[in-house]
Design brief:
Elements lengths: L9 H9 L7 H11 L4 E4 L6 H13 L12 E4 L3 H15 L8 E4 L5 H7 L5 E4 L1 H9 L10 E4 L2 H6 L3 H10 L5 E6 L4 H10 L4 E4 L10 E7 L5 H11 L5 E4 L3 H13 L4 E4 L5 H13 L4 E4 L1 H4 L9 E4 L6 H8 L9 E7 L4 H11 L4 E4 L9
Helix pairs in contact: 2-3, 3-4, 6-8, 14-15
Length: 380
Amino acid sequence: MSFSALGLSPSLLKALVNQNYSEPYPIQNEVIPAILKKRDVLGIAKTGSGKTAGYVLPILMNLQGKTVTKNRHVNVLVLVPTRELAMQVSEVFITFSAGLPDRVKTMAVFGGVSINPQMMALQGVNILVATPGRLLELVESKAVHLSEIETLVLDEADKMLNLGFREEMSLIFKLLPKKRQNLLFSATLNDDVTRINQILLQNPIVIKIEQEEDTFDLISQLGYFVCEEKKGPLLRYLIKTNNMQQVLVFADSVYKVDNISDKLRKNGIKAAAIHSKKSQGARTEALKKFKSGEVNVLVATDLISRGIDIQFLPYVINYELPRSPKDYIHRIGRTGRAESPGEAISLISLEEQHHFRIIQKKMGKWVTMIDSDKLDLQGF
């Protein structure tokens, strides 16, 4: 099926062509017509499946011909778990709304930055993308009102619940009008998501795109046995000898992330670190430089990686293994997306070998391993 068959306007179809969208992903085929009909939707699909555009396009379509009835009363509220995802989602709304006949104003609000500029900028906003804590602060300051919300979106609901937003979300739900469209998206359908579904959604259309993560068809996986003290030289060897121009490196702690990026820069590799201890401005700048190619290596922790969505990322490297197989799958799933191949490399110390065997067993796929002792790491 083509985008033109889904009922989207000529302006949105033109925007899709400009953004090199050729045909809809499975989640978009199902979600777009349902949202256009103002139905409640429960969408279950993995990260990178195209769900953001799947709800952005029909929401923009439904807003055409409407204006904000009262100042600071927004039409659409999108709740997300992280600052990075808030910016990412708002960028998608802004990109697709640029060529629409009727003006649509989108804004992202999140903590970690001054609240005053956000309060002033909220005038005339149609679509608000927000993290729960900052949204409640803005409501308390009367900078925004939620009584006119027509559509509520919970994006990555499973992660929001895991990160402990239950109480804040409950407070927000009480501020919303009872009559509204509810759209709930999640990578998994667990007990928490089921409970939220029962509370929020009215006779929803349930769309579940079967997970394909266990096949990893587009991801080439490779592992290196390496002692802990040689991980740094091996990382630099791999980046330089393979001429990696864009690689996302995962480490477990803030200290390790900073240490890795510092040593990469000292060895002539353009690298940046992104983690929770960095200011919001620094995080935004690092991600911008990585996406533009000004920085070749981005070193990140798992939590921050939730907001990193790069369609054609060629390399992911696990400097350290995550605690759970699910997190490993999430990490390597940053590459091999949008039908483009990618490579996932893991650096495995002696202490990590048992854990990596467990991850492979859970994944149902065995990774080819190379002994790094056979590599000449002198000078790296």
